Amino acid sequence: MESHNCGSCGEILTDGVRCTVCSQDLHFHCAGITEAGFRKLGDRKLSWRCGKCKQSGMNSTLAPSSPRIEPDSLVLKEIKALAEKLEPLESLRDEVVRLRKEFAELKSAVDDNTKEMKAFNTRISLVESRLVQVEKSQSQIDQIKIRLDQMEQEMNSSEQWARMNNVEIKGVPQTARENLFDILAKIGSKIEYPVTKSQINFITRVPTREKDRTKPIVVCFCNRYVKEDFIAAARLVSKSNPITASLIGFSENHRIYVNDHLTVHNKVFWRRLRKRLVK
User: In this structure, is the dihedral angle defined by the CA atoms of residues 273, 275, 278 and 279, taken in order, positive or negative?
Assistant: First the structure.
């Protein structure tokens, strides 16, 4: 098709349709038909008529051209120009829709983070409150520990004071019908410090934490000074001639120890002290 003007909009036309009645060449969109639709008409293209010719009932005997209606052309031009101006707005609308979606997602994420922060702050406050309680409890526990240590020291001192007249003898074999007074008298004879019953408040064997070990003998003297002299005499003799079970009539020959009757706390203390001194 040669290049000329559209019979409807007046714009340059390079491809379009031609009315078989008025012989006007029209753009496809001005003719109200798509290019694909026009191609599908086949032989009916030879009798195709524009919209005006269809309305007016014109036939092929009419003049090959009809006067243009200028107002319609102007309206179409304005519509086309407006469509061209509005075309960028479509992409802008899509962008606005996308931004709205992103803002909605961002707001949802911010709301979730806000909720999490509130929950986190609540947990932090709870932890801080508990820490304050723990600190108070720890302070009370420390005070209780101090008081317990004081009470333990007081009890240990009181218990050791009650043992002030006591002597503990270890290493003496235990028999079924033993006479502890006779055993003590034999030990007194060996250390050259005789002991009479009138000087003794009581004498007995006491349990030990180690079940397999022989129970030690505890002697409570009526006088503290007698106790001190008895221990001093035993230590003096032991330096040159250690006291053994065989010296007082037993078949065993292991050593016999004569010491102060210490509390458990004091025994542990002196045991640890001796280990440090040995190192």
Answer: negative
